[in-house]
Amino acid sequence: WNERFFFSFGHDEEIGGVNGARHVSEEILTRLGPGRKAEFILDEGPFLVKGVVPGYEGAIGFIGNREKGSVSAEIKVDCCPPGHSSMPPPVSNIGILSEAIQNLEKRPFSTDVEGYFAGLQYASPSLPWWFRVITANPWLFSPLLKAHMLKKPATAASTRTTTAVTILRSGAKINVLPGEARAWINHRIHPKDKNIENVLAHDRKAINDKRVTVSEFKSDGNIVPSPISPVDSNGFMAIRDSVARCFKCPVMPCLMPGNTDTRWFWNVSDNIYRFTPIVFEKLDDTKMFHGIDERISTDNLVGLLTFYVDLVESVGTSN
């Protein structure tokens, strides 16, 4: 181990990290020197969640060793000219756009639980015996796992590229037919879909309407899925061991559904992980993020600090 630590605190992570983490990563590379990389990187990420495995009431620590990509698509309809609302045509730009959005939501991306199954296999030695039987036979139980995961948005997001309609824009006056209607769709790209071009191609096929144009909305937040970091590295095992000491529970490598500042550190280390040492009693508790009553308990605040102290001390004194 190299006992030098770098702590990065960016100010613009929520909008892509262009003016924060990007410059920090460049500075770290300069300080490391030519040909050298960091042993590992730990950023925010998934949590410890209780009750996610039937029959096992304890928590599992989810460590993101890979991360979804992201792209926003702009959907535009402008085939109907503007006019007065007293003489409307049979169809409108807004109506065509609405149908396009419905088609997108009715035709989601295909699912893939292979990576999730691999994560369960990693954690299975600490789980009930019957669960180990399930994880040892993915050819038989994958359909059941897929059906179970698709029941909730939080788990369904781990199985495929997601489609979220986030902005609609059209019209300015109540008595005027708008000459244009637009929508913005945010996709979080599953590794199986590989790149932005494949996602846009899916959107065009799902909409299947030549009156609708689909294009990439250029943004600093657009990015392909991350490289996959190994689970046998010194860094992953250090995080795993600190979780075991502080929370007395197993860990599971997983896909991070959101995006973090780690996108700027891919060339700083080959071992990049995402984990937040906070315990949730149930998966539904994650709904508060960026929502109503977002909070952290005092117990979780203590646990979070305890974990980071343990990790830094153990890594700093390791051979």
Largest sheet: 4 strands, mixed
Radius of gyration: 23 Å
Strand order of the largest sheet: 10-3-2-12
What is the CATH fold-level name of the largest domain? Alpha-Beta Plaits
Q: Could you walk me through the main structural features you see in this protein, from its secondary elements to its overall organization?
A:
It is globular and about 75 Å long. It has 2 domains: 146 residues, Zn peptidases (Aminopeptidase); 148 residues, Alpha-Beta Plaits (2-Layer Sandwich), CATH 3.30.70.360. By secondary structure, the protein is α/β, with parallel strands linked by helices. It contains 9 helices and 12 strands. 33% of the residues lie in helices and 19% in strands. The mean pLDDT is 93. The chain has a 4-stranded mixed β-sheet with strand order 10-3-2-12. A 4-stranded antiparallel β-sheet has the order 6-8-4-9, covered by helices on one side. Helix 8 packs across helix 9. The relative contact order is 0.24.
What's the short story on this structure?
Residues 67-194 form the Peptidase M20 dimerisation domain. The chain is of the alpha/beta class and 319 residues long. The protein has helices at 21-32, 93-106, 114-123, 129-135, 138-149, 153-156, 196-207, 234-247, 298-316; strands spanning 41-43, 48-50, 59-67, 69-77, 83-84, 162-170, 176-177, 181-189, 213-216, 251-256, 272-274, 279-280.
